[in-house]
From TrEMBL:
<dbReference type="GO" id="GO:0005886">
    <property type="term" value="C:plasma membrane"/>
</dbReference>
<dbReference type="InterPro" id="IPR020846">
    <property type="entry name" value="MFS_dom"/>
</dbReference>
<feature type="transmembrane region" description="Helical">
    <location>
        <begin position="76"/>
        <end position="101"/>
    </location>
</feature>
<feature type="transmembrane region" description="Helical">
    <location>
        <begin position="143"/>
        <end position="165"/>
    </location>
</feature>
<dbReference type="Pfam" id="PF07690">
    <property type="entry name" value="MFS_1"/>
</dbReference>
<protein>
    <recommendedName>
        <fullName>Major facilitator superfamily (MFS) profile domain-containing protein</fullName>
    </recommendedName>
</protein>
<keyword id="KW-1133">Transmembrane helix</keyword>
<keyword id="KW-0046">Antibiotic resistance</keyword>
<feature type="transmembrane region" description="Helical">
    <location>
        <begin position="53"/>
        <end position="70"/>
    </location>
</feature>
<dbReference type="InterPro" id="IPR011701">
    <property type="entry name" value="MFS"/>
</dbReference>
<feature type="domain" description="Major facilitator superfamily (MFS) profile">
    <location>
        <begin position="1"/>
        <end position="176"/>
    </location>
</feature>
<keyword id="KW-0472">Membrane</keyword>
<dbReference type="GO" id="GO:0046677">
    <property type="term" value="P:response to antibiotic"/>
</dbReference>
<keyword id="KW-0812">Transmembrane</keyword>
<dbReference type="InterPro" id="IPR036259">
    <property type="entry name" value="MFS_trans_sf"/>
</dbReference>
<feature type="transmembrane region" description="Helical">
    <location>
        <begin position="26"/>
        <end position="41"/>
    </location>
</feature>
<dbReference type="GO" id="GO:0022857">
    <property type="term" value="F:transmembrane transporter activity"/>
</dbReference>
């Protein structure tokens, strides 16, 4: 959520897009989560949950890091492609994370696991927007703020991939 927030600010304040045009420019990038969610079922049947989750977080990390050099001369299509790829990773990662948690919790703890996951998602989105919102501390240099934001985003995805690698077990069970 923080990355989307920053990208909207960047499109409007650094690139001069109106709110409507910035919204229209965001539409193609939002196909990533939809496609990722749809592809998760296929990936999980083949590889389980852990491998797609690690790959998705790593993909989002690399795509976010690709935006570290964003500048006035960066073409729109590069922004759209990198954000779309990162969002595809998020689209695969969200159902993978949910499945891994629910499988780990089992039926006896499913209610609390589900509520904690959703609470933490909401809190994470809130913190993400707050942290990313700090990045453009110098509103005269939106590109520097955007680069800082994309760095934080890439580091968070990378850290999440490492945590997944260490703590999500490789089970033989496949998601449906």
């Amino acid at each position: 959520m923080g990355g989307i927030f920053m990208l909207c600010l960047l499109l409007q304040n650094a690139r001069g897009a109106s709110p409507v045009l910035a919204g229209i420019q965001m539409v193609p990038m939002m196909a990533g989560p939809l496609l990722g969610n749809l592809m998760f079922a296929r990936y999980s049947r083949r590889w389980g949950v852990r491998r797609p989750l690690i790959a998705a977080l790593s993909l989002a990390c690399v795509a976010s890091a690709a935006l570290l050099g964003v500048s006035e001369s960066t073409p729109y299509w590069i922004l759209a492609a990198a954000v779309g790829i990162a969002d595809f990773g998020v689209g695969v990662g969200a159902p993978a994370m949910t499945f891994a948690l629910m499988e780990s919790a089992g039926p006896e703890h499913a209610n609390i696991a589900s509520s904690m996951l959703n609470t933490n998602r909401q809190f994470g989105g809130l913190v993400g927007v707050a942290v990313i919102g700090i990045a453009p501390a110098n509103p005269g240099d939106w590109y520097a703020g955007a680069c800082s934001s994309f760095l934080v985003t890439a580091l968070c995805y990378g850290a999440a991939a490492l945590v997944t690698l260490k703590y999500v077990p490789a089970t033989g069970r496949r998601a449906v």
